[in-house]
């Protein structure tokens, strides 16, 4: 493939035109860029592609995840027990996660309807990101917000969610 038709050449297009300098300088930079892409980048990409397809991928396992290994299902369950501090079947944990994602999505969609937002959830998130009133103006304001969320909203609810809080560090 011609170097100019690759993604690696994009910095030599419009961004280069915005730089100060003569037309001759830009022409030289584009020429050098094409040469480096063709002589160094493309051969390196081909070598990587050959390595991945001929050596790496054939040596990988056919199945993925810990559970595909000998004793993997038991190991995965022990990891869940360690991280969650409760012994739950992995399928139950998965189902709980799906339920929570659905619950949060429904709540977000309710908020969207309440405020009259007409787009989808992705558009709503983009909309929120662009709203300055939702962004802290200073580092102190950001830290105060985190402090409020952590110590006034989350920490009081922890005992109702976890039976053993003695292992948690006191970060106050």
From TrEMBL:
Q: In terms of domain of life, where is this protein from? A: Eukaryota
Name of the protein described by the UniProt record: Uncharacterized protein
- Taken from the record, one Pfam family name reads DUF885
What the entry lists under InterPro entries is as follows: DUF885 (IPR010281)
């Amino acid at each position: 493939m011609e170097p100019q038709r690759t993604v690696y050449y994009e910095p030599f297009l419009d961004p280069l035109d915005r730089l100060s300098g003569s037309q001759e300088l830009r022409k030289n930079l584009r020429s050098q860029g094409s040469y480096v892409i063709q002589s160094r980048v493309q051969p390196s990409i081909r070598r990587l592609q050959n390595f991945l397809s001929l050596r790496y991928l054939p040596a990988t396992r056919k199945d993925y995840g810990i559970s595909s290994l000998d004793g993997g299902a038991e190991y995965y369950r022990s990891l869940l027990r360690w991280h969650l501090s409760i012994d739950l079947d992995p399928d139950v944990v998965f189902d709980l996660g799906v339920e929570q994602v659905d619950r949060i999505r429904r709540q977000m969609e309710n908020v969207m309807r309440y405020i009259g937002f007409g787009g989808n959830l992705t558009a709503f998130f983009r909309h929120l990101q662009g709203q300055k009133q939702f962004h802290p103006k200073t580092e102190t304001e950001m830290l105060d917000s985190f402090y409020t969320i952590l110590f006034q909203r989350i920490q009081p609810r922890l005992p109702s969610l976890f039976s053993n809080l003695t292992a948690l560090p006191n970060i106050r």
